[in-house]
Amino acid sequence: MGYLFGPVLSRRLGLSMGVDLLKYKTCNLD
Hints:
By secondary structure, the chain is mostly helical. It contains 1 helix and no strands. The protein has one helix spanning 2-29.
């Protein structure tokens, strides 16, 4: 199960982290 969930969780975490970083950058720009 770890083999199946690993990639999905890492992708979801990466996406969520990427979105947070984008929001953080846009907030700092303002």
